[in-house]
Amino acid sequence: MAGYDLAVRGGQVATGFGTTRCDIGVKDGRIVAIAERITDAARAIEADGLLVLPGGVDSHCHIEEPQPGGGANEETFATASAAAFAGGTTSVVCFIPQWKGHGVWERYVDYRARAARGMLDHSFHQIISDPTDAVMEQEVPRVVAEGVRSLKVFLTYEPLHLDDAQYLRVLTKARELGCLVTVHCENYAAINWRTAELLKHGMAAPKYHAWARPPVVEREATHRAIALAELVDQPIQVFHVSCAEAAEEIARAQARGVKVWGETCPQYVTLTAADIDRPGFEGAKFMCSPAPRTREEHARIWEMIRRGTLDVISSDHCAFSYEGDRGKRQNGADAVFRDIPNGIPGFAARLPIIFSEGVSKGRISLDDFVRLTSTNPARLMGLAPRKGMIAVGADADLALWDPAKKVTLTNALMQHAVDYTPYEGMEVTGWPVATIRRGEVVMRDGKVQAEPGTGRFLPRGPYDLIRPRGITPDGFDPAPPPAVR
Ligand code: URP
Ligand code: ZN
Ligand code: ZN
Questions:
Q1: Looking at the predicted structure, is the pLDDT value of residue 465 above 60?
Q2: How many CB atoms lie within 10 A of CB 335?
Q3: 3-state secondary structure of 213
Q4: Does 209 contact ligand 1 (Cβ within 6 A)?
Q5: Which CATH number fits domain 55-383: 3.20.20.140, 3.30.450.70, 1.20.58.100, 3.90.226.10?
Q6: Ligand 1 in contact with 5 (CB < 6 A)?
Q7: Of the residues 49, 156, 251, 327, which has the maximum number of CB atoms within 10 A of its CB?
């Protein structure tokens, strides 16, 4: 009987800490050997000329979020899994919604069942939009005990946004429970004020979405999110940083030892405000929040990535079709930017775009790429070393990558459920030719071949590495204010 179920042979294995030509032996879905030569395997995949990367970990994506009135967004866990595998991603952390006036436990149970129908290994952030006594004292601890170790808050969006008092309450509970808090940072009142002014003057087209939320609203909310987290001494991750002003707030806080991490997304190094201004109503296809900025801003974001201020690159995949009842086009020319659903699809495009714009164009190293798109999100989310690493004992999640392959992105290649990609026509160099999830080839040459229902829930433990200073497992232990530390 063969010693290994699978051997991946002869590839350049990129660990994020160097690249070596070697073989990987897989047994029962895990990596059990990394050696110069492995021959004793039931099946071998020859990877000569290819890079062997840890499967991508996408720690910010919206999948099949159920809506209060029934239904869910278009991307199901099955379609999302196909899109993710098509792009070399094998694990995701997505969002359990909370609707105002509702609890979270029922949603958790429902969302676990939905996710179990997909093929991706998955974990969740619990959105908190209504932090009542019952939710925070009874239901959230129950969900966290299941292994949901991150809470997500929005500082803008109707009806999700929290005010400062509510945000502080979430931070305090997260500290007590050993969770990370992830934050959407934009100033709610400022956006509402700008939106009302723009609409009063008849400025309703998609391009005014960007006018309503300039960098200063992101910078202000990022500063406040960090300041309150510092006060509580609670680790946070700032999501989808789009501009240097916001990234500089993070850099300053990191320099004084605050436990804050920053994430950005491919759209903030590729799309611009000019895309939201495309003729007709096409601009709606590029509407996400924060809004895409400028080419100059892209260069600053790359610099913040190189410095390590932004150390995770997620997709923020949040897919709405252009056409259709609930699509972005809505009633065409008469639509008002305020009412167009925010968010763009990006699962399959994430790794190819960052590899092409980053590694192929010499902006970041291959090691950086692996860490930004796989190892760092896995570590921050408490999924490592099982995910995000090529190491003995880790799940055998791999992307076999052709670094020289040139591809023109099209919607069909993305394999998601919606009718467009904002990256249509973009040329990339570097492409996944196979994706392996727990030792099973789930995508080969663009053909996804995994069975629905094979994705696994990934429960996460308390945040040992970033545990708040001085907290005791059983007691309330308020952090001293920064001034007396
Ligand atoms: O426009 C975006 N980003 N939509 C998704 C929801 C969010 O803010 O992350
Ligand atoms: Zn957001
Ligand atoms: Zn998001």
A1: no
A2: 17
A3: coil
A4: no
A5: 3.20.20.140
A6: no
A7: 156
